[in-house]
Design a protein that fits this description.
Blueprint (H helix, E strand, L loop, with lengths): L1 H27 L1 H23 L20 H16 L1 H22 L11 H18 L1
Helix pairs in contact: 1-2, 1-3, 2-3, 3-4, 4-5
Pfam family, one: DMT_YdcZ
Organism: Viridibacillus arenosi FSL R5-213
Keywords: Membrane, Transmembrane, Transmembrane helix
Length: 141
């Protein structure tokens, strides 16, 4: 149940962040907004790390270097979301983002990338993705 709660909160805050970033970017620009977002996110994560203390900085040595660039993806995410929200609105942007996430997670599960155990996708999963795509097409037009 906690996993579902965290997923719900994550989804809600992604949407709130996208809307706030789109509004801020109208005043200062997209890359300036991305910079502020990354900086405030770093400060918040650092504060939580310092107070919660659920890990050690020494653990970073165990992470493969190419996984450490994951945070850099956030700049692309922020730019893409802001640009999309300006052009197609919040609802359609988030809908397309969800489909992109599900599509890529299917590939990751099927291929077993990033050390994830390979999963077999069956017809119901493909039907579900197809229904979401049709829903977004209906929503967008």
């Amino acid at each position: 149940m906690r996993g579902v709660l965290f997923a719900f909160l994550g989804g809600a805050f992604i949407t709130l962040q996208g809307v706030a970033n789109a509004r801020i970017s109208q005043d200062i620009g997209i890359w300036q907004t991305a910079t502020i977002t990354q900086l405030t996110g770093f400060v918040m994560a650092l504060l939580i790390f310092l107070f919660v203390r659920d890990g050690s900085l020494q653990m970073f040595k165990k992470v493969k270097p190419y996984y450490l660039v994951g945070g850099a993806f956030a700049a692309i995410i922020i730019f893409s979301n802001i640009s999309a929200i300006h052009r197609i609105g919040v609802t359609l942007t988030i809908s397309v983002v969800l489909i992109a996430q599900l599509g890529l997670t299917f590939v990751i599960d099927i291929k077993g990338w990033f050390g994830v155990g390979k999963q077999q996708m069956k017809l119901p999963q493909f039907i579900g993705i197809g229904m979401m795509v049709v829903g977004v097409i209906i929503l967008g037009f």
